[in-house]
Design a protein that fits this description.
This protein is an alpha+beta fold. It has helices at 2-20, 23-26, 109-112, 124-132, 139-154, and strands at residues 41-46, 51-57, 63-65, 69-71, 93-97, 103-107, 164-168. The protein folds into two domains: 1-37; 40-168, PPM-type phosphatase domain (Phosphatase 2c, domain 1), CATH 3.60.40.10.
Length: 194
């Protein structure tokens, strides 16, 4: 997925550079695509056992909300997409385990980097900790609470884009049931019309 995203971004930047480059009028291909543009990415894989693996390209890590709020380490970051080529090996970093009822709070850097008029950063972890005291909160309620606190902190003037996402494990785990004694598993007889 990460390599596909990287190729798609490279294609987008080449097309945009071609459309915006002065050489378009001369019918020549531009030498360099928009070199100043890059994208931070965090890919998470949550496996059936709840283990979470990450590939991080310069993006802030999530917070795990269980009995408490804790930042999730996402490994040494790869460069943001568009800045440098991806390395040949892309090992996913095992970063946490998400159990039933627990949540991951994901965000863009615009949330943690938001400042109030005095230049103080938004205290995202503190706001999450306060919100988690009222648990259980629905993912929508948690986002609403953080977004409201963010707007109050910045007086409604966000200097950067902000995206907030909550992923919660709401699956009910049912233990495997032993087969009843005396029952045998059989295959159904094939249909005569096959």
């Amino acid at each position: 997925v990460l390599r596909r995203l990287d190729r798609a971004l490279a294609r987008h930047l080449r097309e945009r550079a071609r459309d915006e480059h002065p050489a378009v009028c001369a019918g020549r291909e531009p030498e360099h695509p928009a070199a100043e543009e890059f994208v931070t990415v965090l890919l998470l894989e949550i496996r059936p056992d709840g283990q979470v693996y990450a590939l991080n390209c310069g993006h802030p890590g999530p917070y795990r909300i269980a009995h408490r709020v804790e930042p999730v380490p996402v490994g040494d970051p790869l460069p943001p997409l568009g800045a440098f080529p991806l390395p040949a090996e892309l090992p996913a970093y095992p970063c946490t385990r998400l159990m039933t009822g627990e949540a991951l709070f994901l965000h863009t850097d615009g949330a943690e980097d938001a400042r109030d008029p005095a230049g103080r950063f938004f205290a995202l972890e503190r706001v999450l900790t306060e919100a988690a005291r009222d648990a259980p909160l629905s993912p929508a309620a948690l986002i609403h609470r953080v977004h409201g606190a963010l707007l109050r902190h910045t007086r409604g003037r966000l200097a950067d884009d902000v995206a907030l996402l909550v992923v919660r494990d709401d699956r009910v785990r049912v233990p495997a049931q032993p087969a009843e004694p005396g029952l045998r598993r059989t295959r159904p007889a094939p249909s005569p019309h096959c």
